[in-house]
């Protein structure tokens, strides 16, 4: 099993990253803030615009350590990775399947089946754990609707119809999202999804969680020899990691959404951790971002039993396992891609 390596998060906007031997050095106005060994890092995520030295980027690219640059509010800017090391036969098969909409649909429907299944069981868990704090009948009705949509998707071989059914399911699930916020209702609420920019604290956290998850998923795909930019559900678009967005669909709810809800409901994050900008954008403060990233790293270390493998692994390795299962399916080692089904 792959070892779960660390991610180094640089949260200050004016820190420059450089190389010293086998170490990354953090500089601020020529003053050294820190020096860390690179041998146990899987990726570096930097918030801000200052940048990194060519020597550091070259060192990391050679050793498969990705460097990701985000804006201060978590919007993706760029990702530096090394040369593709994957099996050319596997990538050729990936491209051929991507060009065939019928074959793509047969994989895409499993991604979305996993997503809707997991959303359904998030709602079911709420009815079990908080029956006095939510409208159980409303949650049960939503869960039943998701089951009906899942049945339709399992037989669907048309990409556009799969996208349409996924949109219906997302609407049903999102209508219950605000009810799953059980604490700090004066500061945290969910009305609709807003991305660029996020217009409330919940959307600000969701956007950051999805960005981090997409980066981890893209790294996992590259690690097993697949091309993160050639998707099946999300079609090709320059600069978009389409396959990473495909694969993370089934993890959005159980990995990112539940993480954000737990930060709110456990009062790890509060209203003081956000500020509003003149353009109505809501962003996290430096302190809020540090709390968020610390909790994200802890989440990745938590153990679960993988539903398909039956093995105990950490949450942080789930994208790697799913990427490996997808590669095995494309190699014809599996009859069907098994999505991550959480319960």
From TrEMBL:
Its EC number is 3.1.-.-. Keywords: Antiviral defense, DNA-binding, Endonuclease, Hydrolase, Magnesium, Manganese, Metal-binding, Nuclease. CDD domains: Cas1_I-C. InterPro entries: Cas1, CRISPR-assoc_Cas1, CRISPR-assoc_Cas1_C, CRISPR-assoc_Cas1_DVULG, CRISPR-assoc_Cas1_N. Gene3D superfamilies: CRISPR-associated endonuclease Cas1, C-terminal domain, CRISPR-associated endonuclease Cas1, N-terminal domain. Mn(2+) binds at residues 166, 234, 249. GO terms for molecular function: DNA binding; DNA endonuclease activity; hydrolase activity; metal ion binding. It is an enzyme of class 3 (hydrolase). One of its GO terms (biological process) is maintenance of CRISPR repeat elements. Its cofactor is Mg(2+); Mn(2+). Pfam families: Cas_Cas1. NCBIfam families: cas1 (TIGR00287), cas1_DVULG (TIGR03640). CRISPR (clustered regularly interspaced short palindromic repeat), is an adaptive immune system that provides protection against mobile genetic elements (viruses, transposable elements and conjugative plasmids). CRISPR clusters contain spacers, sequences complementary to antecedent mobile elements, and target invading nucleic acids. CRISPR clusters are transcribed and processed into CRISPR RNA (crRNA). Acts as a dsDNA endonuclease. Involved in the integration of spacer DNA into the CRISPR cassette. PANTHER family: CRISPR-ASSOCIATED ENDONUCLEASE CAS1 1 (PTHR34353). Homodimer, forms a heterotetramer with a Cas2 homodimer. Belongs to the CRISPR-associated endonuclease Cas1 family. This is CRISPR-associated endonuclease Cas1. It comes from Paenibacillus lutrae. The lineage of its organism: Bacteria, Bacillati, Bacillota, Bacilli, Bacillales.
């Amino acid at each position: 099993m792959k070892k779960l390596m660390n991610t180094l998060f640089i949260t200050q906007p004016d820190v420059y990253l450089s190389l010293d031997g086998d170490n990354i050095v953090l500089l601020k106005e020529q003053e050294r803030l820190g020096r860390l060994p690179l041998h146990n890092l899987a990726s570096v995520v930097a918030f801000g615009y200052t940048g990194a030295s060519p020597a550091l980027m070259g060192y990391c690219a050679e050793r498969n350590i990705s460097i990701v640059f985000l804006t201060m509010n978590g919007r993706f800017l760029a990702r530096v990775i090394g040369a593709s090391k994957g099996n050319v036969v596997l990538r050729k098969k990936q491209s051929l399947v991507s060009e065939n909409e019928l074959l793509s649909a047969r994989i895409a429907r499993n991604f979305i089946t996993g997503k809707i299944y997991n959303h359904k069981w998030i709602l079911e868990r709420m009815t079990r754990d908080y029956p006095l704090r939510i409208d159980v009948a409303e949650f049960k009705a939503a869960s039943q609707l998701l089951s009906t949509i899942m049945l339709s998707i399992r037989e669907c071989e048309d990409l556009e119809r799969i996208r349409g059914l996924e949109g219906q399911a997302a609407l049903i699930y999102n209508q219950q999202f605000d009810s799953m916020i059980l604490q700090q209702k004066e500061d945290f609420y969910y009305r609709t999804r807003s991305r660029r920019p996020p217009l409330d604290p919940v959307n600000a956290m969701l956007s950051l969680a999805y960005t981090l998850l997409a980066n981890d998923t893209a790294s996992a795909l590259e690690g097993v020899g697949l091309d993160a930019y050639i998707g099946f559900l999300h079609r090709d678009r320059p600069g978009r990691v389409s396959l990473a967005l495909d694969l993370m669909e089934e993890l959005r709810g159980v990995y990112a959404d539940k993480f954000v809800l737990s930060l709110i409901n456990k009062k790890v994050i509060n209203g003081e951790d956000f500020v509003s900008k003149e353009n109505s954008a809501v962003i996290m403060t430096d302190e809020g971002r540090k709390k968020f990233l610390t909790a994200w790293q802890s989440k990745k270390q938590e153990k679960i039993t993988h539903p398909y493998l039956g093995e105990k692994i950490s949450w942080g390795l789930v994208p790697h396992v799913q990427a490996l299962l997808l590669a095995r399916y494309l190699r014809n080692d599996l009859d069907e891609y098994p999505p991550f089904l959480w319960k």
